[in-house]
Each structure stands twice: as structure tokens, then as C-alpha cells.
Amino acid sequence: MFTGIVEEMGTVVAVERAGEDARLRLRGPVVTDGTAVGSSIAVDGVCLTVTDVGDGTFAVDVMPETLRRSTLGGLEVGDPVNLERAVPAGGRLDGHIVQGHVDGVGEILARQPGPRWDDVVIGLPPGLARYVAEKGSIAVSGVSLTVTHVAEDRFGVSLIPTTLAVTTLGRLAPGDRVNLEVDVVAKYVERLLDARASAGEGS
Q1: I need a surface site. Which of 42, 96, 107, 143 has the fewest CB within 10 A?
Q2: Residue 200 placed within a domain
Q3: Which of 162, 11, 33, 148 is nearest to 85 (CA)?
Q4: What are phi and psi of 5, to 5 degrees?
């Protein structure tokens, strides 16, 4: 489990593609501190298992399903990525509950700079709007953000100076793609309501 509070902006140092899968090596001296093989690290919001650690870098294997359903398939050497280690038991939950399971890929539709922040509008893939609520939480490329407004095919967020400075969101422009993970609580509520409705129909 993660919190959506990015620990550092890492860099892709190697990409090995073999058939439909890939192996990535990323530089992240903060997240590799105390990390061992088998640990989980969120890379742009995608939970991945560490397969090798050394000299401030770590390697991960990315399966075809992950490459298809996230932005990781488009990563190249030199690209920046948001990195976060899994939250330890008893650790602070400063953002919101983030699983690292991407629900869809959105596109930056508009960006409006403010005095000290940026207002950003992001496109929603079909079917995700019902899980996004105004003033609710959403993870955008692994960053926990508060939704400022939502429509059927888009939502808005405001990026504070810290987010602009220490995450990849400060560099994104209209047309760029981002990983989206909606609040898991919304999905469980829907599942429970569907089960209740089905039980009612059966009776």
C-alpha cells in the first residue's frame, strides 16, 4: 500500500524490451535506501516489485498487462518518474490509500498557471467518472490529489508549489498522458451496493 506522497523524482537509466514485457532500471537514491529485492516501489503510481538493487538504482520487471494499461510502456532512458516506497505498518498516511493498481490512463487537457499554483484539467477514460467525486481523492501518476471539479469525461486538480517542484506533474503539458487510480473505497462501495441489489432481486 502507498499514500500518494512522492518521495523523490527518479530517472529511467535503462530500458530492456524483450517481446511483450520489459525490464526497467531506475535511479532513486532515496527509495533504494533500505530497499531489498522483493520490496514494492510505486513508479508513476504503478506498484512494481524490486528485482535488483545497487548503487542508488533498482530494477523492476514490467509485464505486458501493465505496459498496456499504464504509461510505463512509453518510458525511455532519461525520463523522470515519481517514486514512492510502500508505507510501513504503523507509518503515517499523509495522502490517501493508494494500491498502485492503475485504473486507466488520462490525458492533460488544459493547464492554467496561478500565482503560486497550477490548475490542471485531466481527461477521464470511459467508466471512471462515477468513482471520482469533488473534494475526493485521486492518484495522478502516483501523486495523491484532491479533485476540484468533475464532469463525465474530465476532472480538475490544483497543484501546489511543492507538487510542482518535486513531482513530474510540474513538467506536464496538454497532450501528455498520466496514470490514474481512483479511490478504492468508491469501488468497494459500488461492489457492495451491486451485491445488495442482486440479493434483493433474488429474493
Answers
A1: 107
A2: no
A3: 33
A4: -100, 105
